[in-house]
Design a protein that fits this description.
single chain; alpha+beta; Umud Fragment, subunit A; 10 helices; 26% strand
Length: 259
Amino acid sequence: MRQESRNTRNVEWASRIIALRRRMGISQSELGKQLNSSAMAVSRWERGVQDPPADIYIQLGNITGDPECWYFWGRAGLHSGDLMRVLPAVRSRLQKERLPALQIVQAGAHRLRKKGSHLVAIPVLPVVAATHGGKGDPEVALDQMKPETVLAAPSSWCPNPAYTSCLRVRGRSMMPLLHDGYIIVVDKSQTNRRKLYGQIVVAAHKEQGLIVSRLQRFDDTEVLVPENREYDSISISSASWRIVAKILWWIGRASQAAS
């Protein structure tokens, strides 16, 4: 017990997690449930035995709020400078407001501390969704990858921020709409096929991985249709295909679009 106390005093993250849980007035088990984790994991973090993973730090930041959130988000590799670099037009306003109205979300973290923020910080995952003729990363990567950076966007652009993340496009079959290397912003809460006909989606296949395309229905057949008609459409009526997200919007450099 004495050794555990010494570890807690020497590890800052442990003392901060303990302080947060005590302010909330909840047990280790209750905090674990809020973080989609276990009481045993919380105990290891609080004893300084194990460093929490990045997604846990992001959720701890969501829970605690400004200004304590910046410590936890910093441990996850997210910093206020990332947000202000992405949206320089709002930099002065953010600095004046000390960034109190931001939500930081992590792919798969379906709980948010509050709604109604001016901006949302969206994680950019090192995950690739291919276009027709290519092979994308496996679907499981969406929930297991640590964000490589974040993008800031108006909250009105992200109706379900806790389910929203960014992927990268690889391939040319969706040109001229989506170019190779574009960043796509996807909403994993929107997967109802009947509501997505005509929309750009991310679909998943066990062997082909994540694929970007337009979902269409012809008679009784659901099809992924490329923008570039030199590529073949793909029937997805079999159980081997799943719709995993709707694409909300995308980002690309002007030089890419001109190429």
